[in-house]
């Protein structure tokens, strides 16, 4: 896994409504496909090159024909954009854009650079807002990277150390969850319009399990059963969150789709230590659905001074 920060400088101002994240994700997908797809009129499902194509792997991860598990038909995307909550930009404005790459997606890092640079020339959104990619920084080491070269080994880390719950204490504490971008949760297959801690923890667990299985060749299923059981003991002390809805037009399905979720913050009481590993992973991977757009960006803060736990970076 690698966590990166791209520095963008906009050359002109303009409208990015409803949100930079939705506009960016759509533009990036189009640029990536134009760079990597040799059969422009074919669908990924019918293309023999899909498994070896950057677009095919990153956006339409192939499901093997001999996979009889049928647990999932659409594997999660092995990348997470982390754009700021902006819908307008000004000329000369600098923006920090985060990106997390997972597992085999690391091999396609050059495509992210080239796709962003192509998108920079064509512009974002209806206004075709042009920008420059002025730098890439590794969040692990803090070092500036040469965007014309591949990822150095020093920038890559595994998810396993993040998941360690060495901070487990058995003591209850108050902690805050801040939803920086809309968090999309489901419960029993139904979309939730409010924050639910059990569903929140379950979404992180499922996300880690599927990313590990499909993109890292790891089996983490059943590792988190004790954490899922502990989620029911956490109490909500205050809930200052609200549902915020957005809509986007899906060209492939030719329809408008909702992409909103819960924004704001909640304060809870429970054993933060037992969840700390999951929370550390969620900082990089997001929570809930549609994280590749930048949805589900979350932060965590321990509120009790006497609870000595490092909430991460």
Describe this structure in words.
- The chain has 313 residues and is an alpha+beta fold.
- The protein folds into 2 domains: 2-155, 2-Layer Sandwich (Alpha-Beta Plaits), CATH 3.30.70; 160-302, Alpha-Beta Plaits (2-Layer Sandwich), CATH 3.30.70.1900.
- Helix content is 26%, strand content 27%.
- It contains 7 helices and 15 strands.
- It has helices at 20-36, 54-59, 109-122, 160-163, 197-215, 225-230, 272-285; strands spanning 2-10, 14-15, 79-82, 88-89, 94-101, 131-138, 144-145, 173-183, 186-187, 190-191, 235-244, 247-250, 255-258, 261-270, 298-302.
- It has a 5-stranded antiparallel sheet, covered by helices on one side. The chain has a 4-stranded antiparallel sheet with strand order 11-14-8-15, with helices on one face. A two-stranded antiparallel sheet has the order 2-4.
- Helix 5 (197-215) packs across helix 7 (272-285).
- The chain is globular, with a radius of gyration of 20 Å.
- Residues 306-313 have low confidence and may be disordered.
Brief sketch in words of this structure:
The chain has 313 residues and is an alpha+beta fold. It has seven helices and 15 strands. The strands form five sheets. A five-stranded antiparallel sheet has the order 3-5-1-6-7, with helices on one face. Strands 11-14-8-15 form a four-stranded antiparallel sheet, with helices on one face. Strands 2-4 form a two-stranded antiparallel sheet.
């Amino acid at each position: 896994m690698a966590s990166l920060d791209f520095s963008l400088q906009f050359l002109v101002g303009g409208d990015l409504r409803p949100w930079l994240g939705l506009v960016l994700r759509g533009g990036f997908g189009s640029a990536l496909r134009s760079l990597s797809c040799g059969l422009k009129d074919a669908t990924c499902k019918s293309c023999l090159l899909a498994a070896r194509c950057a677009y095919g792997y990153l956006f339409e991860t192939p499901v093997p024909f001999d996979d009889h598990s049928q647990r999932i038909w659409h594997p999660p995307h092995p990348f997470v954009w982390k754009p700021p909550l902006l819908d307008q930009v000004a000329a000369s404005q600098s923006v920090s854009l985060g990106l997390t790459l997972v597992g085999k997606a690391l091999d396609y890092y050059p495509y992210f650079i080239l796709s962003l640079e192509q998108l920079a020339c064509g512009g974002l959104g209806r206004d075709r807002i042009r920008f420059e990619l002025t730098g890439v920084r590794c969040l692990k080491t803090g070092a500036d990277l040469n965007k014309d070269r591949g990822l150095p080994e020093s920038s890559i880390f595994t998810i396993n150390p993040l998941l360690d719950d060495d901070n487990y204490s058995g003591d209850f504490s108050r902690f805050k969850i801040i939803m920086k971008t809309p968090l999309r949760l489901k419960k029993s297959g139904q979309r939730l319009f409010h924050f639910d801690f059990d569903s929140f923890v379950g979404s992180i667990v499922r996300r880690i399990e599927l990313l590990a299985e499909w993109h890292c060749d790891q089996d983490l299923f059943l590792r988190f059963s004790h954490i899922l059981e502990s989620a029911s003991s956490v109490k909500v002390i205050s809930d200052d969150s609200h549902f915020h809805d957005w809509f986007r037009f899906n060209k492939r399905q030719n329809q408008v789709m909702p992409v909103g979720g819960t924004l704001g913050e909640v304060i809870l009481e429970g054993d933060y230590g037992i969840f700390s590993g999951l929370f550390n992973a969620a900082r990089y991977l997001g929570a809930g659905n549609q994280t590749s757009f930048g949805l589900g960006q979350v932060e965590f803060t321990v509120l009790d001074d006497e609870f000595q736990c490092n909430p991460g970076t």
